[in-house]
Design brief:
The structure holds two protein chains of two kinds. By secondary structure, chain A is mainly beta. Helix content of chain A is about 10%, strand content about 40%. Chain B is elongated and about 115 Å long. Classes of the chains: A mainly beta, B alpha+beta.
Chain lengths: ~90, ~1000
């Protein structure tokens, strides 16, 4: 079980969190004209890197904040965690 | 020879307390402190089971977790427990156990015929033998294999025992209480660190309990006792025996299984049988010791062939002799310690040492004791079927290839020692890539991967002096980093015997013309010849060899067989062991009971049960409940002998004719506040929200970004910047997360706050043509007329002194209202509604009637919003705004979503107006078409229409919009039904929606 440092609450066990996928994906702006390809990339296409991965987690059984976690997908090492609005 | 193998004195058992127990129906006696194994050996019982494949007689091989043979079926307090290691099971009064894998009994086992047919059971015989004829698989082969497979049989009864989980944090977790564990725990505890010391056995001390050493002026055993009692008295230390740390997981999380009551005849009240500890440790010290390696020779599985260290343990801890004419077969000095113990207790051992001319203190001591030692000698084969009776021994040439002077020697046990294998399982599970150490012919941990440090013989250090020195030092160093305190400890002087180098020799060659089975994996019956065959057949990777031959795949996970297997592969392949590599170590290190893994989260406790504030009223009024997510909801209220069908029909009918009341507390509720709330809702929902006036509710549909409907519900504008959102019961939590996601990550500029208020409100839906009259009586001061409170209107009122919120919304399609009060007032509200509604024939209705009402109205719910449908499919496309953007809108223009024959919701009525259509049925054009019959869609929900008194279903089918009026078939292969049906509009009742607006 991972040990994730919530930037708001401190170190907590993984079972307090839910996983939220790739944190680098940016939602296209509202009302913006974009191609089918661009939209599909946003909705469906994700990289599955072996190694460093910036991802979203929600501290769902804690402060309910969405946070960003920089984690190694191979070793599960967590390098750093960020608040939702924090620049990485 | 006497059947009593217990010495007159000695050992750590309590000779003042005699214990009776039964094995295979026969009564025996042992002492308090015995294991089942030691007590059986003391009674001269060596035949405890039959082997897995060949059903060869099997006895005891070890004295602890490494035991591959002695698995028994336990009967304790009317509960059966299969796969219990007799070497670990402590004796208690009235214990009952029996042998497994034998029929009719262990002495005479029919399956033993396999042993004589062993030519037909080579490695991979499953793959080779059961290939043809194909039809035999289900009828003949599989039932036979199933019957033969496994050790023991699990109970089919509910387990009455209680199992618990515990979460714990500590500075240092120390796994094993041998010299390394004790020294490091002591040093760390002295520095003030929070320490957990875990010992698998009942006694602390590990090898100190059986070795002849002096620490300071004490024996190893006395020193261990002193340290343990001191640790136990320290408030910062948790000392646990009967506790196996079996898994090392991510981020220094380790799991330990504590067997609290297994050694007692009965679990005490309020005490669990076992407890699983989830331990997050800052530092982990692995002091799990080492396991003696077997030497491989002919028939080396015969009962009476035993590890030399186990023989010593039975002697020193239990005062039990494994034999009275022991033969010690060793390639190192450890065997001598066992021989000396025998000699000291008046038994004459013979030592066969594979080495030519070794020299050490301990060998000298053995010589001085006049023990018969034969150098360059090996055991060729054990003789005897159910117990060793003699051994063929031989002189072995210097190159270890040729045998000479073969002779037969009488003996009743053969104690083998092939040197030591460090127990690196935990280190390996932590991610540590082990390295092969040529000195000891075994793998040891390498660079730490997590925060683990391996000490003592688990790290390949076999001298006590170095073990204690490094362990004191590491315990001090690691704890000092955490506590910033240092309490220097002087390391006591140590007296131990120096040993000489072991011999790399481990497998005795077969003499000419003899084809003895030489076993590597004792539990899975894998012999040298099986590995050789696998290699001849082209298997190369050790992982493949393992799976093909099942080497190391038994419940003991190859604790005794692993290294010899690798050694053999490398010998045959002419490689060195590190090139072959070892197979992956996976948790659990020892078998863990399913009960312990599940803990208290079983049955009703597997998830919380949520009950509405009106629950006890429902109970009192004969509600039959149904699980709705984690909620318990009334399904129907039973009157007299009604069944579900009759009751729900009555309830639904009463809503259509009079008025009903339904507990809707379970609906998800989210409170939304902030100046940008309207803008936020406008982005979340598909329809327009900016112009919703205060005091009005609106129905909304929200999508996922991929265009699939996520949820629906009504949201009411309570005041300028305050909204009350409702969600479906099932999606409540997901919707809240979804909203938080967009507010926190995507549009942080929106000034909006959301919070779940599901638990704050108790809700009652009052539905039916007479609902307005009920409402008026509930709120005599309010104008609830058609004009005063129109459809989708909202007002606040006073319900006999209780604040209430009234929403004119409807799920049943009738004139209806939802009244919410604070949860604590829920029961008050409910009873008032029932009381006042009496004159209007009000009846409570459950989820079944609720479903009926919504299905015949064509209102969609969870069975249609199933994560596969877009708004169009549910006839919700009218709610899609063309003017604004919202979550998921861009996806709706996908070609598949706008296809002209896109699936759409329809109504389905059986032509005979009698046969109910099972939910999940397929809709097909031609009932007689060849399989697979192309399906048009599926039936999502079915009910008995109370309006028309015939069955009615909703279905989502291809090109639904052009299917109205068609005659098709509903097919349910599951229920074996084919029903001719007509497709109608999904809005079966009141298609214009006049009733809700009345």
């Amino acid at each position: 079980m991972l040990h994730i440092k919530c930037p708001h609450c401190g170190l907590r066990s993984q079972n307090e969190f839910t996983y939220g996928g790739d944190a680098t994906v940016k939602r296209p702006e509202l009302n913006k004209e974009i191609s089918d390809q661009e939209w599909d990339n946003f909705v469906y296409l994700r990289k599955s890197p072996r190694g460093n991965h910036l991802e979203l987690w929600q501290h769902i059984s804690g402060c309910r904040q969405w946070i960003k976690v920089e984690r190694d997908t191979l070793t599960h090492e967590i390098f750093k965690t960020f608040k939702a609005n924090e620049e990485v | 020879m006497s059947k009593n193998f217990r010495l007159e004195k000695g050992g750590l058992v309590n000779r003042n307390k005699k214990i009776s127990f039964k094995f295979n129906g026969k009564k025996y006696f042992g002492y308090e402190g015995d294991t089942l194994a030691s007590a059986l050996i003391a009674n001269g019982v060596h035949l405890v089971g039959r082997s897995f494949k060949y059903h060869r007689p099997r006895g005891f091989f070890g004295a602890g977790v490494d035991e591959p043979y002695a698995l028994v079926q336990m009967n304790r307090n009317d509960e059966v427990d299969p796969n219990v290691r007799a070497t670990e099971q402590e004796l208690f009064e009235g214990l009952e156990a029996k042998s497994v894998n034998c029929w009719p009994n262990v002495e005479f086992d029919i399956g033993a015929i396999n042993n004589f047919l062993n030519k037909f059971f080579p490695a991979g015989f499953y793959y080779k033998t059961f290939m043809w004829p194909k039809s035999f698989w289900y009828k003949v082969y599989e039932p036979i294999i199933r019957k033969a497979a496994g050790f023991g049989s699990a109970s089919t009864k509910h387990d009455k025992e209680r199992y618990e989980h515990k979460y714990e944090y500590c500075d240092l977790l120390i796994t094993g209480s041998g010299p390394a564990g004790l020294a490091s725990a002591y040093a760390a505890a002295k520095n003030g660190a929070k320490v957990i010391l875990a010992e698998d056995k009942s006694r602390f001390g590990g090898s100190l309990l059986t070795s002849e050493v002096t620490i300071g002026n004490q024996s190893g055993q006395e020193w261990a006792e002193k340290i343990i009692s001191e640790l136990k008295s320290m408030p910062n230390v948790i000392v646990k025996n009967r506790s196996q740390v079996f898994g090392y997981y991510d981020h220094n999380m380790l799991v330990m299984s504590e067997r609290i009551s297994d050694h007692l005849p009965k679990t005490e009240k309020y005490v669990p049988k076992q407890k699983l500890w989830y331990i997050r440790a800052k530092e982990v010290i692995i002091s799990s010791g080492s396991i003696e390696r077997p030497l491989v020779f002919g028939n080396n599985d015969t009962p009476g062939v035993i590890l030399s260290s186990a023989a010593k343990e039975y002697l020193k801890i239990y005062g039990v002799l494994v034999g009275k004419k022991p033969l010690i077969f060793t390639n190192n000095d450890s065997g001598y310690e066992t021989a000396i113990e025998f000699k000291k207790n008046g038994v004459e051992p013979i030592i066969l040492d594979t080495r030519k001319n070794p020299n050490s203190e301990i060998i000298k001591e053995a010589k001085d004791l006049n023990i018969n030692i034969k150098f360059s000698y090996v055991v060729v084969a054990a003789k005897g079927y159910k117990k060793v009776k003699s051994a063929d021994i031989a002189k072995i040439s210097d190159d270890k290839k040729n045998l000479s002077n073969i002779e037969n020697l009488k003996c009743d046990c053969i104690c083998v020692s092939g040197f030591w294998t460090p127990t690196i399982h935990l280190a390996s599970q932590s991610g540590n890539k082990s390295i092969f150490n040529e000195e000891i012919d075994a793998f040891i941990p390498n660079q730490s991967k997590q925060k683990e440090t391996t000490l003592g013989s688990a790290n390949g250090i076999f001298t006590l002096e170095e073990t204690l020195k490094t362990s004191f030092q590491k315990g001090n160093e690691l704890s000092k980093k955490i506590t910033n305190k240092e309490n220097k400890i002087s390391i006591p002087s140590i007296v131990e015997k120096k040993t000489s180098k072991h011999d790399k020799f481990w497998c005795v060659p077969l003499p000419k013309g003899k084809y003895y089975k030489r076993f590597l994996d004792f539990q899975n019956d894998v012999a040298v010849s099986d590995i050789q065959l696998a290699l001849r057949e082209g298997y190369r990777s050790i992982e493949h060899v393992k799976r093909y031959t099942t080497l190391g795949m038994a419940t003991d996970q190859g604790k005794t067989s692993n290294l010899n297997g690798l050694q053999l592969v490398s010998d045959v392949e002419n490689k060195v062991v590190p090139q072959v590599g070892h197979t992956t170590f996976r948790p659990p290190y020892t078998p863990i009971s399913i009960g312990a893994i599940v803990g208290r989260e079983i049955g009703k406790h597997s998830k919380p049960t949520r009950k509405s504030p009106m629950h006890y009223w429902h109970e009192k009024n004969n509600a039959v409940f149904v699980d709705a997510g984690v909620w318990l909801r009334p399904r129907y209220y039973k009157q007299r002998n009604e069944n579900l069908f009759e009751a729900s029909k009555r309830e639904a009918k009463n809503v259509r004719q009079n008025v009903g009341v339904c507990d809707v507390t379970t609906l998800g509720k989210i409170d939304i506040k902030g100046p940008d709330s309207a803008e936020f809702l406008n982005r979340v929902y598909t329809n327009a929200w900016l112009k919703l006036p205060v005091g009005k509710a609106r129905y909304g549909v929200m999508l996922r970004e991929d265009g699939i409907v996520m949820d629906d519900g009504t949201t009411t504008r309570i005041s300028e910047n305050h909204y009350h959102m409702t969600t479906t019961t099932a999606q409540a939590a997901n919707v809240l997360s979804h909203l938080e996601y967009y507010l926190q990550l995507v549009w942080p500029e929106l000034n909006v706050n959301v919070v779940s208020s599901t638990e704050q409100w108790a809700g009652a839906a009052i539905a039916g043509p007479k609902s307005r009259e009920v409402l008026q009586k509930l709120f005599p001061d309010l104008d609830v007329s058609k004009e005063g409170l129109p459809f989708m209107g909202y007002m606040e009122g006073n319900l006999f002194g209780v604040n209430a919120k009234i929403y004119r919304i409807s799920f049943s399609g009738e004139l209806a209202y939802e009244v919410n009060v604070e949860s604590d007032n829920g029961i008050f509200m409910w009873e008032k509604i029932i009381e006042i509604g009496k004159e209007f024939n009000i009846q409570p209705y459950g989820t079944e009637a609720l479903s009926t009402l919504r299905i015949e109205m064509g209102h969609v719910a969870g069975s249609e919003l199933d994560g596969r449908t877009i708004p169009y499919d549910n006839s919700l496309d009218g709610l899609i705004s063309k003017k604004k953007d919202f979550i998921g809108k861009r996806s709706l223009s996908k070609s598949a979503y706008v296809a002209s024959d896109r699936q759409k919701i329809v109504g389905v009525v059986p032509l005979d107006k009698k046969t109910s259509i099972p939910e999940g049925s397929y809709i097909v054009k031609d009932a007689k078409a060849k399989l697979p019959n192309p399906k048009l869609g599926h039936v999502s929900a079915s009910c008995w229409s109370v309006e028309y008194d015939n069955p009615f279903s909703l279905a989502i089918i291809k090109d639904g919009k052009n299917m109205i009026g068609q005659k098709l078939f509903a097919m349910s292969p599951l229920k074996n039904k084919t029903i001719p049906v007509e497709i109608v509009s999904s809005h079966y009742v009141d298609p214009k929606g006049e009733r809700v607006r009345s």
